[in-house]
Amino acid sequence: MTRILTVPTQPIEGQKPGTSGLRKKTKVFMTPHYLENFTQSVFDAIGGVAGKVLVLGGDGRFFNDRAVQVILRMAAAQDALRVIVGQGGILSTPAASNLIRKRGANGGVILSASHNPGGIDEDFGMKYNGENGGPAPESVTDRIFARTQELTEYKILETEDVDLSALGEVSLAGMVVEVIDPVADYAKLMAELFDFDAIRNLFAGGFRMRFDAMHAVTGPYATAILEGMLGAPAGTVVNGTPSPDFGGGHPDPNPVWAKDLMDAMFAEDAPDFGAASDGDGDRNMIVGRGIYVTPSDSLAVLAANAHLAPAYAKGLAGIARSMPTSRAADRVAEKLGIEAHETPTGWKFFGNLLDAGRVTICGEESAGTGSDHVREKDGLWAVLLWLNILARRIEPVQQILSAHWAEYGRNYYSRHDYEAIPTERANALVQRLRDISGDLPGQSFQGLTVESADDFAYHDPVDGSQSARQGIRIGFKGGSRVVMRLSGTGTEGATLRVYLERYELDPSRHDLPVEEALAPVIAAAEDIALIREFTGRDRPDVTT
Ligand code: VG1
Ligand code: CO
């Protein structure tokens, strides 16, 4: 017995305008009507779901299974034609992006709070991607936000749960629920992009790798592709079974949260190559034997060597990086004679450039790298491109990096995060920087002279849209730089991110410890922004 209910409801405290998804404590999502209200806001903002095809899945975190059932019932109550859902409600973010594109769906709903921890006391999230497979642009997220403020009712079907364990199609009050293998289409795409024979030979020759799935969604993908299709020995993938609380850890692939991987890669008997991915599979971390590769360097190396993979053999149209990402990739673009773009933080800003064919490879300092194969960053894609390059160059990661720096110079890079600081203080710090930025050029701090300072405003060259106030950029003579901005993805207070960069052309100075190389830039950032005074902290919570 099924019937459609129209439930009266009230506006909710929803997503922040300008952010591409809603992330909240799981318990907030679990409060009565909250998930329903946000889902209704999304459906309303996209003009309803009647007659539409949607993709649905998430990273398997706590509440994923319940949320999928609610969204299916709401879509069915509102006459959606078909929902393509990953078996067990599972889909990585890049796999969902691929499915939307491949199946010509109208859009998709992805359940994840990405690298944030999961569990009843941790975080949950939901985001909407459009028909190009990418995060909804600001025009859509602003409409979603507006709907959350004026909602009065939602529609839902009252019925039993759909069995998502079996592949195939079932009808939910006339709507088709198509349960698919979450890995199959994605694995096929990867096999089209990369030289799987070369990578297979690499593993057959004894090359050893450790992939840490961090108990998150990439486990099944990595196991199927690396161990299944590419012949890497069993055990190459560790922490490969997704768990609702990610084994109690942060599924955040960086040296802090993937410390086990770092330890393994710096040990005596370290494997040749190490990698990790995040909660929803869109981020990546790359480690060679005894060397961590910063995401900014990884982007530059991938761009410089992409032609070694079949999908990019004809060259790249252009490279885009988010504004705080180091400028190492710009040097590669310059050498290749292709376009280089600097966009605000967040993958959605790459969408137009990718759709227009202006760029092929994109990256963010926060461990996000991807290409025009989907419209999200893609953790495993980055790992496979590295493997493809390693299979063709037959050189240790360390040597590839040294050669890269010798050719282009080295951009030393680090990010300092100050987490859960009172919002007013964080806002005051940024406002002050905005106010003084006009006076900074010409002034010197710790021996570094400011060359330029502004609050980054982006003008999208494809659709002409403007995005202002995207972060304070302070450039110094000689190529060093500090960027400061507030996180848009945190769920507690404000997070101040301080991005530090120093450019060094001289190869005799390419082997400095990163903290030492950046010491003057770190000190200058403190002098300019008075971080201690505003945050009350004398050191960052997380340094990556
Ligand atoms: C962070 C990163 C940003 C990334 C975003 C989403 O945002 O800095 O580069 O695009 O997370 O990543 P913020 O506003 O907290 O700095 V994920 O893996 O959530 O999709
Ligand atoms: Co993510």
TrEMBL record:
Q: Which UniProt keywords apply?
A: Isomerase, Magnesium, Metal-binding, Phosphoprotein
- What Enzyme Commission number(s) apply to this enzyme? 5.4.2.2
Enzyme type, top EC level: isomerase
* This protein's record includes keyword Transferase: no
Stretch list, region Disordered: 1-20
A Gene Ontology biological process in which this protein takes part is: carbohydrate metabolic process
Q: List residues of the Alpha-D-phosphohexomutase alpha/beta/alpha domain.
A: 15-154, 185-287, 296-408
Among PANTHER family, the record links this protein to: PHOSPHOGLUCOMUTASE (PTHR22573:SF2), PHOSPHOHEXOMUTASE FAMILY MEMBER (PTHR22573)
By sequence similarity, the record places it as follows:
Belongs to the phosphohexose mutase family.
Protein name per its UniProtKB record: phosphoglucomutase (alpha-D-glucose-1,6-bisphosphate-dependent)
Q: Highest lineage ranks of the organism? A: Bacteria, Pseudomonadati, Pseudomonadota, Alphaproteobacteria, Rhodobacterales
